[in-house]
Amino acid sequence: MAGEVHVLGERNSLLGQFLGEIRDQEIQLDGMRFRRNIERIGEILAYEISKTLNYQTASVTTSLGKAECSLLKSQPVLATILRAGLPLHQGLLNYFDKAENAFISAYRKHEGDEAHFEVEIEYLSSPPVDDKTVILCDPMLASGSSMVLAWKALLERGTPRDLHVAVVIASREGVQFAREQLPPDTTFWVAAVDPTMTSRKYIVPGLGDAGDLAYGAKE
Fold this sequence. Notes:
By secondary structure, the protein is of the alpha/beta class. The protein has helices at 14-23, 31-50, 86-95, 145-154, 172-181, 210-215, and strands at residues 5-7, 55-61, 66-72, 77-82, 100-110, 117-125, 133-141, 162-171, 187-194, 196-197, 203-204.
């Protein structure tokens, strides 16, 4: 089974405020505020992930002398599942501003009704990821199928050294499935874990469809 799960919302911080706002059905009516709060959660996840990465000491010249600073040895690849992941991706990119970027298009292919579907990968745009740190993000980890398929798609570009999964809200079932299917040293960074899902694989209490709330309803 895959590695450690950090549930950041279990500790009191401003993260709780942002989570409360993205869940609130009245505040959700403001799409720009919803996107910005997802972005801010991405910034918090990026900061926490950054504490676990590798650094090197470098001498930096100021106008008055030299200072020893701790700098990242290498930049991660930020990988995002479209379209809902875009605001979260931007939050991560605000902090890992020199990172390479990958985008995976995944969609639900329904078979007759809304409750029965398969997740399919339609498109991948990614730099080589061999021996790199990958941060794979999606705001919602429901069943976990999209996350696992996105990871398998990324393997077409090489085998990463480390994998971090960054999520806003996950279901317990989704976390369990992803931990079983992803590499054993994967680290999960989750703002909140909710107990159940509906028959259509929406997280409860969750927040609804993150993509629709960020960018409008789709057909």
